[in-house]
Amino acid sequence: MSWIQIKINTSGDRAESLGDLLIESGALSITFQDAHNHPIFEPLPGETRLWGDTDVIGLYSAEIDIAKVIMILEQSPQLDKNFIHKIEQVEDKDWQREWMEHFHPVCFGQRLWICPSWREVPDPTAVNVMLDPGLAFGTGTHPTTALCLQWLDSLDLVGKTIIDFGCGSGILAIAALKLGAAHAIGIDIDAQAIQASRNNAQRNGVSENLDLYRPEDLPTDISADVVVANILAGSLCELALSISKLVKNNGSLALSGILTTQASTVTQAYQQNFIFDPVVSKEDWCRITGTMTGAV
């Protein structure tokens, strides 16, 4: 079976309503794509993140009367008759297999591997975290996650407690436990992320050493030797005091989810309580690490 795809270029503030219009016209699925390949933030759980110039892509059955669809779109007040669009025929594929082909075991640092379950583990003697792409953010493919994994691999975590603030899939907490940490705490605003972290911890045999909390349920006396927060830069600034309080005196902090252009702003929000290392960048993203100098 083949499919027909309509791609329409629009502005970010109109993309979501245009997607609704395509669904009403018979589209089976909608995809939002950055038209200029700008760097983007990872979306928060349950959030659809749009960009300044966005391509909205509707996928239709090959049997659809595409001329009728175009007529519906032309009559919509959201679009003018000369709206920019492209119609393509899409060949039928085993989409699950196609998607799986993109994920391979990846090494971070000297000894840590993130491996999807359908691939052979390259080095059985290494520290292997088995983790499949799922509903929560964090597989190691995004530069921000990669930067955090490389940092964790460089630390001596044996016997230490780590907090993964914004844990998503649980990848950072699980990696820390596999690298020798005695205890990990994952915190996330989304119940789906909490469940994903729990499932991934069980798969990797570390669930007994991982505690998971929504922020409102977090005990007030919790602190850790190592805290890593891979979330949006704006949230890192807003939560600077709360995150800083989680780090023990002389403990280590890593902040990511930050564009390189935002590094100085984020650093300023934490500089009162930390001595910082040089910023480390990967593509357009960066990681900020530092040591707590005293109680907050």
UniProtKB/TrEMBL annotation:
Pfam families: PrmA. Its main location: cytoplasm. One of its GO terms (molecular function) is protein-lysine N-methyltransferase activity. It catalyses: L-lysyl-[protein] + 3 S-adenosyl-L-methionine = N(6),N(6),N(6)-trimethyl-L-lysyl-[protein] + 3 S-adenosyl-L-homocysteine + 3 H(+). It is found in: Cytoplasm. Keywords: Cytoplasm, Methyltransferase, Ribonucleoprotein, Ribosomal protein, S-adenosyl-L-methionine, Transferase. It comes from the Bacteria. GO terms for cellular component: cytosol; ribosome. Its EC number is 2.1.1.-. S-adenosyl-L-methionine binds at T145, G166, D188, N230. GO terms for biological process: methylation. It is an enzyme of class 2 (transferase). Belongs to the methyltransferase superfamily. PrmA family. NCBIfam families: prmA. Methylates ribosomal protein L11. HAMAP family: Methyltr_PrmA. PANTHER family: ELECTRON TRANSFER FLAVOPROTEIN BETA SUBUNIT LYSINE METHYLTRANSFERASE (PTHR43648). This is Ribosomal protein L11 methyltransferase. It comes from Candidatus Regiella insecticola 5.15.
